[in-house]
From TrEMBL, chain A:
Xref: PROSITE patterns: ABC_TM1
Species for this entry: Ureibacillus yapensis
InterPro entries: AA_ABC_transptr_permease_3TM, ArtM/GltK/GlnP/TcyL/YhdX-like, MetI-like, MetI-like_sf
Protein name: Amino acid ABC transporter permease
Compartment list: Cell membrane
TrEMBL record, chain B:
Name of the protein this chain belongs to: Amino acid ABC transporter permease
Subcellular location: Cell membrane
Topological type in the membrane: Multi-pass membrane protein
Gene Ontology MF, one: transmembrane transporter activity
Source species of the chain: Ureibacillus yapensis
Length: 217, 216
């Protein structure tokens, strides 16, 4: 049976990790949403060099492990005298990695808006940027929300690798508690439950949204 | 930074050795998780009371946990209740558990893409439910499953790097070993290792895209 005294005696530490995981994931989500939107627009803008930058970024980052980005920032940048804390390095790595996936989701969303919308906006006198901002993006957002939800779930799960740079999130706090109490099995089960508290409702919500979108089409 | 020193023959062969382990562990895991995920996915699809519910619960719980937690759990927590595995076995088990849940969903949505009329037609021509699944639904669904399974294999190759935390001698781990020898190695080795992952995964992603175009 699980030893619940481990949970109650270390509840503060579990809670701190839980909140840190949420905090890191939110920060990284906001950052990667901004970066991802810029990259998505780069990829579809009618300017070739921007297309290349967007494509190279997305294809390169999507095909390498998150861990190598984290190690590069945390142990590679100090070679150039840039030293970041584990927390900052971890958040940056998550942001850089997730932006590539969000860019693809947003690009798919933008491409799903009929071409006529852009032509209509342009011929009513809007510039390309105005048309993108006021006409295309608001319509694309609806389609982008479920994949964004999925990316947030991935962020929460991926944030666990921040334990490697001692960023104080849930997995790290779990390791700390288990090395203090010499109990591993029960602590990891509780850590798992804390992760599921965030990810399970999100994943159910995303499934609902996807079904509703599929019906409305 | 010392590119020539970092790319010495010894270092290069050490990294290639690591990449070989990455590929082997990922390949074994994807085969095992195709079998287990296939069973879970079909059980969830088949809507058998209780059993489908249980398999849905297993899939959703595993899918929503971090892989790193599963790796730690298999390697550090299971020995506490007397179940001990080697590093390689732990890595393969953890990856298989995680990927099975992912593949189960891919397999289920592949099966779901086959029109319901196919089952009715199979049943009314006298086949049992299991025969219909095996001879009618599965062969049609498999086509839809192949591209996402290739994509999942890309994820798996990337995820295998997490096994560096239990010192599996895969590419990421070997890179860290080389990096520890000299600060001059760090940037050249990171560039090389990132390119190694990129080249293999990029080729696979092109294969996945081609297959997707073919099936749609």
């Amino acid at each position: 049976m699980l030893d619940f005294t481990i949970l109650s005696e270390n509840f503060d530490m579990f809670l701190e990790g839980f909140l840190n995981t949420l905090y890191v994931s939110f920060l990284a989500l906001i950052g990667s949403f901004v970066l991802g939107t810029i990259l998505a627009i780069f990829r579809i803008a009618p300017i070739k060099p921007l297309n290349w930058i967007g494509t190279i970024y997305v294809e390169f980052i999507r095909n390498i492990p998150l861990l190598i980005i984290l190690f590069f920032i945390f142990t590679g940048l100090p070679v150039f005298e840039i030293r970041l804390s584990g927390f900052v390095a971890g958040t940056l790595a998550l942001m850089i990695y997730t932006a590539a996936f969000i860019a693809e989701a947003i690009r798919a969303g933008i491409l799903s808006v009929p071409k006529g919308q852009m032509e209509a906006a342009r011929s009513s006198g809007l510039t390309y940027t105005q048309a993108m901002w006021h006409v295309i993006l608001p319509q694309a957002i609806k389609i982008v929300i479920p994949p964004l939800g999925n990316q947030f779930i991935n962020l929460v799960k991926n944030s666990s690798i921040l334990t490697i740079v001692a960023a104080g999130e849930l997995m790290y706090q779990g390791d700390l508690i288990s090395s203090r109490t010499f109990v591993t099995f029960d602590v990891y089960i509780f850590v798992a439950v804390f992760y599921l508290i965030i990810t399970l409702p999100l994943s159910l919500g995303v499934n609902r949204l996807e079904k509703r979108l599929a019906q409305s089409n | 930074m010392d590119f020539i020193g970092a790319y010495s023959p010894d270092n290069l062969s050490f990294l290639v050795e690591g990449f070989w382990i990455t590929i082997k562990v990922a390949a074994i895991s994807i085969v095992l998780s195709f079998i287990i995920g296939g069973i879970l996915g079909i059980l969830r699809y088949a809507k058998i009371p209780v059993i489908s519910m249980i398999s849905a619960c297993i899939i959703e719980i595993i899918r929503n946990l971090p892989l790193l937690l599963i790796i730690f759990f298999v390697y550090f927590a299971l020995p506490e209740i007397g179940i001990k595995f080697s590093v390689v076995a732990s890595a393969i088990i953890a990856l298989t558990v995680f990927e099975s849940a992912m593949l189960a969903e891919i397999i289920r949505s592949g099966l779901n893409s086959v029109p319901k009329g196919q089952i009715e037609a199979g049943r009314s021509s006298g086949l049992s439910y299991i025969q219909t699944l095996w001879h009618i639904v599965l062969p049609q669904g498999v086509k839809k499953m192949v591209p996402p399974i290739v994509s999942q294999f890309i994820s798996l190759l990337k995820d295998t790097s997490l096994a560096t935390v239990i010192a599996l001698p895969e590419l990421m781990h070997n890179a860290q070993v080389v990096n520890a020898q000299s600060i001059n190695n760090i940037i050249p080795i990171f560039i090389l290792v990132a390119l190694m992952y990129f080249v293999v995964n990029y080729i696979l992603s092109i294969v996945a895209r081609r297959l997707e175009l073919k099936t749609s």
